[in-house]
Amino acid sequence: MIQVLIVEDDVRNAEINRRFVGKVEGFEAAGIATDGRQARELLEILTPDLVLLDLYMPDVSGLDLLRHIKVSHKQTDVIMVTAAKELHTVREAIHGGIFDYILKPVIFERLQETLEKYKSFREKITLLEQEGSRATVDQQEIDELLRLNDNDKLRSAYPKGIDQLTLEKVTGYVMGMNRSFTAEQVCSQLGMSRSTSRRYLEYLVSTGKVTADLSYGSVGRPERVYRAK
C-alpha cells in the first residue's frame, strides 16, 4: 500500500483529497498536515511514499517544503496540488523534482490518472531494484521510468475521462454564453448526462477558461454555477 501524506491548509480541500486518494486502489491517506510544522513532523513519523503538497501554507511556502523533502526525505515523492498558475512557480516546482503538478479544483479523474501512473513508476523501480545482479539500466527502461515510452506518447493530452471532441463541443457552447449557467443547463442543451457535463465544466475551471461559484437559493442545497471568462 502506497502511503500518502496530504499537506493542505484548507480542511475541506484536505478531506476531499483524502477521499480521492482512498478511492484509488493501492493508495492510503496516512495523514493530513495543515501547516508546515505539522508536515515536517508527519514526514518524520510516517515516512510517507508520496506527498500531495499545496503551495500556499500559513507558515511556509510549499516550494520551501518541497526543497526540505528532497534534501531530508529522499525516498518521498511529491505531487503539487495547488491553485498557483504562475509560470515561474510551475517551473520552479518542476525543477525541484515533483512527479506532477495538479491545479485546483482537483478533478478526481485527473488525480486518479497521475496516482496510477505513479504506482506503475514505483512498481518498475522496485522490479529493477530486485534484480540485484544488475547495476545499470538500458535506454528502454530509462524511457519507461521517465514516462516517455510509446504508450505514453500515444496517450491523450487530456486527463482520463476528458475526450477532445466532447471538450470542444462543451467549450464552444459555454464560450458563447454571456451569463451564468449550471451543469444541468449544459447537459440539457448538449444531450449528455449531468455528471458528464459537470466533469467537463470542472476541467474548464481547472484550465482557467471558466469560473465557478455557489448560488444560494431560498431553499435546498447551494447550486454550483459557472461562467465563461
Automatic annotation (TrEMBL):
The modification 4-aspartylphosphate is found at residue 54. The keyword Zinc-finger does not apply. PROSITE patterns: RESPONSE_REGULATORY (PS50110). This is Transcriptional regulatory protein. SUPFAM superfamilies: CheY-like. Keywords: Activator, Cytoplasm, DNA-binding, Phosphoprotein, Transcription, Transcription regulation, Two-component regulatory system. SMART domains: REC. It comes from the Bacteria. Pfam families: HTH_64 (PF20714), Response_reg (PF00072). CDD domains: REC_citrate_TCS (cd19925). It is found in: Cytoplasm. GO terms for cellular component: cytoplasm. It comes from Cohnella luojiensis. Residues 3-119 form the Response regulatory domain. Its main location: cytoplasm. The keyword Nucleus does not apply. GO terms for molecular function: DNA binding; DNA-binding transcription factor activity; phosphorelay response regulator activity. Gene3D superfamilies: 3.40.50.2300.
